[in-house]
UniProtKB/TrEMBL annotation:
Protein name as annotated: Glyoxalase
Lineage of the organism: Bacteria, Bacillati, Bacillota, Bacilli, Bacillales
Domain VOC: 10-127, 169-286
Cross-referenced InterPro entries: Glyas_Bleomycin-R_OHBP_Dase, Glyas_Fos-R_dOase_dom, VOC_core
Stored Pfam families: Glyoxalase (PF00903)
CDD domains documented for this protein: VOC_BsCatE_like_C, VOC_BsCatE_like_N
PANTHER family per UniProt: CATECHOL-2,3-DIOXYGENASE
Length: 286
């Protein structure tokens, strides 16, 4: 988990919109294993350790279903502490009967993919040791290979899955964008991330501190995909945590220099990427 603390910049909280808060809470508590940190009539903040918020789910009024072929959330990804935890989770998911969308060995990690009842994408994964990652010319080798499910299940079979481990963090977020070149300019020149892998002209993976990726960006919903309506199911915002006020201030200056408006409210900085994704810029308080 060393890639999700100072001196790195990383994603630490995601806010998503759902059509039925009660149904979503049942899924996120019973299928994934979150705890409720705070609850109101139309939103809930979820945690793995009882203290740190990782996910906010919110039911807009009015709300419409997730819109196809738009920008926004592809998936958010929960990083488990160990491979054994991932094995326990996979066994739990299979026993629950909840539908999987996929499971892959990415060389740097192993991942399980599914969606919440509204179609918001979720990944649960475990990293391989960073010493085993293969780097060449500043890029890390990633792939999509079949996962060794039997081996993974065997590693996690000793204990049942009862809840997310307290050490679980938000590992990364993957976004649909309208234009990869514009996204690269914003996230690299503006927000200060580095490109660590490319998938042709379709996807880009970026990070700080030589992580395999804190953010994924793709145009799989189509080049020029529109921003979804404000009240549709999907991503509302996500937050980035910078290591210091100085680093955040330099980021804000870069963003404004290349033409992006940064809104300041309640001691926070907010910016919208070229595809309409809202981002909260925070400073590490640890």
């Amino acid at each position: 988990m060393e890639f999700h603390r100072q001196p790195n910049t990383f994603v630490d909280l995601v806010n998503i919109k759902v059509s039925d808060l009660s149904r979503a809470l049942t899924f996120y508590q019973e299928i994934i294993g979150f705890q409720v940190l705070e609850r109101s009539e139309r939103s809930a903040t979820l945690t793995a350790n009882g203290r740190t918020p990782l996910l906010v789910i919110e039911q807009p009024d009015p709300v419409i279903a997730k819109q196809p072929r738009t920008t926004g959330l592809y998936h958010f990804a929960l990083l488990l502490p160990s491979r054994a935890d991932l094995g326990r989770f996979l066994n739990h998911l299979l026993q629950s009967g909840y539908p999987l969308q996929g499971a892959s060995d990415h060389l740097v990690s192993e991942a399980i993919y599914f969606a919440d009842p509204d179609g918001n994408g979720v990944e649960v994964y475990a990293d391989r040791p960073s010493s085993s990652w293969d780097w060449s010319n500043g890029e890390v080798k990633m792939s999509t290979e079949p996962i060794h499910a039997e081996n993974l299940l065997a590693e996690g079979k000793d204990e049942p899955w009862t809840a997310l481990p307290p050490e679980t963090i938000l590992g990364h977020i993957h976004l649909h964008v309208a234009n990869l070149f514009e996204a690269e300019t914003f996230y690299i020149e503006g927000l200060g991330f580095n490109v660590v892998a490319r998938l042709g002209n379709q996807a880009l993976f970026i990070s700080t501190g030589n992580y395999h990726h804190h953010i994924g960006l793709n145009t799989w919903n189509g080049v020029g995909a529109p921003t979804p309506p404000e009240h549709s199911v999907g991503l509302k915002w996500f937050s980035l945590t910078y290591p210091s006020e100085e680093v955040r201030a330099k980021t804000v200056n870069r963003l404004e220099t290349i033409g992006f408006q940064v809104e300041r409210k309640h001691g926070e900085e907010w910016v919208i990427d070229p595809s309409g994704n809202h981002i909260r810029l925070l400073v590490d308080a640890s």
